[in-house]
Amino acid sequence: MDFYDESSIFLFPRSFNFQIVSMFKKILIANRGEIALRVIRTCREMGIKTVAVYSTADRDSLHVKFADEAVCIGKPQSSDSYLNIPHIMAAAEITNADGIHPGYGFLAENAKFAKICNDHHIKFIGPTPEMINSMGDKITAKETMIKAGVPVVPGGEGLLQSVEEAKGLAREMGYPVILKATAGGGGKGMRIVWEESELEKAYSTAKAEAAASFKNDGIYMEKFVEEPRHIEIQIAGDQYGNVSHLSERDCSIQRRHQKLVEESPSPFMTDELRRNMGEAAKKAAAAINYESVGTVEFLVDKHRNFYFMEMNTRIQVEHCVTEEVINFDLIKEQIKIAMGEKISGEDYFPQMHSIECRINAEDPYNDFRPSPGKITTLHQPGGHGVRVDSHVYAGYVIPPYYDSMIGKLITIARTRQEAIDTMYRALSEYVIEGIKTTIPFHLQLMTDERFRSGDFNTKFLEGFTLL
Description:
Layout: E1 26-29, H1 33-45, E2 49-55, H2 62-66, E3 69-74, H3 85-95, E4 99-101, H4 111-119, E5 123-124, H5 129-136, H6 138-148, H7 163-173, E6 177-181, E7 191-193, H8 199-214, E8 219-223, E9 229-237, E10 243-255, E11 258-264, H9 271-287, E12 292-300, E13 306-312, H10 319-326, H11 330-338, E14 353-360, E15 362-363, E16 369-370, E17 373-374, E18 377-379, E19 386-390, E20 397-398, E21 405-413, H12 416-429, E22 431-433, H13 439-447, H14 449-453
Parallel strand pairs: 1-2, 1-4, 2-3, 4-5
Antiparallel strand pairs: 6-7, 6-8, 9-10, 9-12, 10-11, 11-14, 12-13, 14-21, 15-16, 17-20, 18-22, 19-21
Helix pairs in contact: 4-5, 12-13
């Protein structure tokens, strides 16, 4: 059935028939690209049929080709397609989907969307709208964490009402401070202020950027933690109050607050720190009776003091490294929790070392400028200890409308050094022609002595020069 101007549904025959009993007969994936393909793969293993949705720019993406059905939901712009709730719900209705998996980004943490799904008796595969709301606003989340006994970064109470209030609070805390959008993410509406003379401009810029990005210009202030590591804890909770942590990921290699490399376990971690952070993450989840998989993100200073930063109520891009070090399918766990199954309540600890490099269609020699276009040649690496999650192929045209990530390269080994060596070998085999990619950056990073020794923090790339 059409509700956009092209043939919208393609049926793909299943080559096998599972006898697995599941509450889900068909799941629609309200996303695109590699995460949509990732969910399709797990659903197929579970015997669940899938529906892909796509914009006109994504008609040739692999997630469209591999789903059992595919529905066009609009024009290329996200507002007309992947953020268009009426179109997505119409696609679910006409295909008789009984579950919707939101992936990450787009509507994954949109409480309104989760409520609409549930109101239409289509299970949102994620937490409840109330849980999403409780962690979606950073001021509310911080207050919740303080009550739960989870360490938080020192800062003001509530949203800033004026630049004068901001100046007074900054004098109280001492510089540097950081301004953050309460509805923020991805570095939007965020400004570090080193001295009072910078504050007024930073305040107005942060509010304007927050309003443009999130339609909410609320900002708050925290003490800026210098030389921090960005370490997050993967958690899972069920509908019966059970919570597990599945160890940590180090996401400190970032550019402008955007993650480029993630790994598990963190080279900065100790057994005591892992235990304490894991317990804090479980407290955070228990405080809102969290159900589904999710991630509690922390800043960790050079003295290994850790502070709650935010909770992501969805699957993360970097979930793959956790899957590899504990041999665990997080998407399958997410679906099973949505089906009402209990989790074990057991905590998981890394048995291997895994590193993920985000392969972006960007030119690292030109300030990481996006590089959409046609992939003329593609050779993906393989061999022992190598995993590639990607939705692209030779001849695929990368559209300019979405995030520039076109794949994730993950390596797995017994030790960190072996994982790095495998990554360097795999990157050397990775051939993508027709566009620019971040592969040259990652190759150089894998040979950097500071990175190899584990001596880095979120500011590492500020002094990194691509050769």
